[in-house]
């Protein structure tokens, strides 16, 4: 039976890796996700077989856990709108980290303070270290993901919430305390004095949980895509550590894949914002609230109408659509697709400019546009599209604030100065679709809205785009 389990694990690992390879391109992403899901199913079956073969565990509890997981996991995944997908990703990721932390706690209790892991005269130190690492990182990931979820859901404000200069010393103190508790547990586990009180492992989980809260609370909404990716990487690493403690190959391999890919993605997104990961974790510019001008000058934006916008785009050679979170909120992707199709029938070339951190999770805009059957070839990444803005007749910005803000390039005093942006302001004409003049998630005024070649089309994005489409039909 052991050979069967190992064979199933190898098949599962192969499907994990092959599925991840599919996620590197939009055209193969769905298939890659399906392959990885089947691989996870095979890994679960292999684990159940190994448990049965070892005659360990209560099968009624195992079955109950599987049923509860399906009941709680499937309905939200089916019903959640794409607008709320970042929240769902944050929540599911947090559940994974919390599960790992609970596994570490259960192993501590089951092994009598990890002392039952001893073989002969010496304990397996690597198992003790792996279990404690899983407890710390899993707890940080869970509670950090809870805060990320609440911020994305706007239950908590998107702006940084912290205690000023005391924030980083407090975080450092919490981390040192959690590590100190873990060291005490580890020393007790390998000493002949006997097991450690369960209060120590509870202390590790509590301190780590508070640290998770205190790390994510001061992080502003504009950094949230990077935070989600970072928490995802932490969950993967904690799962790999738990797999090492449990001698479960599926958890080790899957955790390392998630941890490695999440780390790479986090680094790429941080570079796309020209911000270091330590700077993001230390807290940054936030979201919501007031957006005062830097020089106190009162500026006036120029409003336009759907008819004028339609005329501009109908007689353009090229139109670039820049989607942002406003498009997601209004669920305007299908309306945009219909408008683009009509423009293309008039001989206008339509492209979509995607900033790496547009929206509130990695790839948010790509997924929304793909849902509306927008051609993958029409979706252009920032580095591929930026040189084209200078020869573009009309750029249509739909709810994208911070990633189009020229202050990142022109204003050294701006909190986002140095962040690579889409060169929208270089277009011959810019039309911005917004509900109001409120700032974006970073809470920073955007000079683009007051530029000479920019006009504002106020209202719900979906309704505004539909009105533009109707005007196009009349031309």
From TrEMBL:
It is a multi-pass membrane protein. It holds the Pfam family PNTB. InterPro entries: DHS-like_NAD/FAD-binding_dom, NADH_DH_b, PNTB-like. SUPFAM superfamilies: DHS-like NAD/FAD-binding domain. GO terms for molecular function: NADP binding; oxidoreductase activity; proton-translocating NAD(P)+ transhydrogenase activity. The chain crosses the membrane at residues 6-23, 35-51, 57-76, 88-106, 126-150, 170-191, 197-219, 226-246, 252-270. It is found in: Cell inner membrane. The keyword ATP-binding does not apply. Belongs to the PNT beta subunit family. The transhydrogenation between NADH and NADP is coupled to respiration and ATP hydrolysis and functions as a proton pump across the membrane. This is NAD(P) transhydrogenase subunit beta. The gene is pntB.
């Amino acid at each position: 039976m052991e050979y069967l389990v190992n064979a199933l694990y190898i098949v599962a690992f192969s499907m994990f890796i092959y599925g991840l390879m599919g996620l590197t391109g939009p055209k193969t992403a769905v298939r890659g996700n399906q392959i990885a899901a089947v691989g996870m199913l095979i890994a679960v079956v292999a684990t159940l077989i190994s448990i049965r073969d070892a005659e360990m565990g209560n099968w009624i509890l195992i079955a109950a856990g599987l049923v509860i997981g399906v009941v709680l996991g499937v309905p939200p995944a089916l019903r959640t709108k794409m607008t709320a997908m970042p929240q769902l990703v944050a929540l599911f990721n947090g559940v994974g980290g919390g599960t790992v932390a609970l596994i570490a706690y259960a192993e501590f209790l089951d092994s009598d303070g990890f002392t039952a892991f001893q073989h002969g005269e010496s304990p397996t130190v690597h198992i003790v270290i792996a279990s404690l690492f899983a407890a710390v990182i899993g707890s940080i990931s869970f509670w950090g993901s809870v805060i990320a979820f609440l911020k994305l859901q706007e239950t908590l404000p998107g702006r940084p919430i912290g205690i000023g200069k005391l924030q980083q010393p407090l975080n450092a103190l919490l981390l040192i305390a959690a590590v100190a508790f873990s060291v005490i547990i580890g020393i007790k586990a390998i000493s002949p004095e006997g097991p450690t009180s369960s209060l120590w492992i509870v202390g590790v989980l509590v301190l780590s949980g508070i640290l998770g809260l205190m790390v994510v609370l001061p992080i502003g909404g504009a950094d949230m895509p990077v935070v989600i990716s970072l928490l995802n990487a932490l969950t993967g690493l904690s799962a790999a550590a738990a797999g090492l403690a449990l001698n479960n190959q599926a958890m080790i391999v899957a955790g390392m894949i998630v941890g490695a890919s999440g780390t790479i993605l986090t680094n790429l997104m941080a570079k796309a914002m020209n911000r270091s990961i330590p700077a993001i974790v230390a807290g940054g510019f936030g979201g919501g609230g007031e957006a005062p001008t830097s020089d106190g000058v009162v500026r006036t934006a120029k409003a336009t109408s759907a008819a004028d916008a339609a005329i501009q785009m109908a007689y353009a050679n090229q139109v670039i659509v820049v989607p942002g979170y406003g498009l997601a909120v209004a669920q305007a992707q299908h309306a945009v697709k219909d408008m683009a199709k009509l423009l293309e029938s008039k001989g206008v070339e339509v492209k979509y400019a995607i900033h790496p951190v547009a929206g509130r999770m990695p790839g948010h805009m790509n997924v929304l546009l793909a849902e509306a059957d927008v051609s993958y070839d029409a979706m252009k990444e920032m580095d591929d599209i930026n040189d084209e803005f200078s020869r573009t007749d009309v750029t249509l910005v739909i709810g994208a604030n911070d990633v189009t803000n020229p202050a990142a390039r022109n204003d050294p005093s701006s909190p986002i100065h140095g962040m690579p942006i889409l060169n929208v302001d270089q277009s011959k004409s810019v039309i911005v679709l917004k509900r109001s003049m409120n700032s974006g998630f970073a809470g920073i005024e955007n000079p683009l809205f007051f530029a000479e070649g920019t006009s504002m089309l106020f209202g719900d994005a979906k309704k505004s785009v539909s009105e533009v489409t109707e005007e196009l039909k009349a031309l």
